[in-house]
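Same chain as my last thread, 253 residues:
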Amino acid sequence: MAHLAPPQQSQLPPTGWDGRIHDVRQYSEDSGIKVLDRSISIVRAVAGGDKTLAELSEATGLPRATTHRIATALEVHNVLARTEDGQWTIGRALSHFSGHSSPRLLSAAAPIMRDLVESTGESVQLYKLSGDTRTCIAAEKPESGLTYTVPVGSQLSLTAGSAARVFAAHSLIDASPFPADDLKEIRATGLAESIAEREVGLASLSAPITSPNGSVIAVLSVSGPAERLVPTPIKKWGAELHKAAQQLTEALR
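reply #2:
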């Protein structure tokens, strides 16, 4: 007499499934695709802070050769990058994704930018990377007086201007035209400035806005007539801009 096999249980999630099965899969870090899981573990480790190859290998539990091979592949796609001293850091591809002009970024920036206009009396802009340009995604200006206005949606060059210098300082653009010593100072101080670099008579200063993992997602700028931003843009409004950039960064955490 033939024996009937017991009925197989349905592979469909039960009614009212709330995603907990997905959570278990997510936290197990095992998708069944080994190279993908290893790549994600490397990116997560670097997101927690720049790491040498040895530190990255230790953090992920992967052999050094495997770590180097995958990290190098991720570098090709700009998911990871290397700092001047050879450490692995988050690359510009992830910064582009996280720097999207989300409603949260714009809503958090609006009151901070208005306060910065009030304290400086100058125009304020927020930029993000968009391909080989930087795009103004938000702008505020004083109600009166001589101002420099950048319309929202304007795409500007990455070869001139303080905002471009900030993006370059954090390795977010290719073939930077700026001196390496200048970029090193920008990383150290968190501020960049330019005088008549992009347009005659215009001066500006900029500061990075970072995500929780430390990658630059946008740049906050103050701009105005060079004759008003004296003796230098940073000496004039650097403290105010730095404070505003920190406030916006904290608001996004």
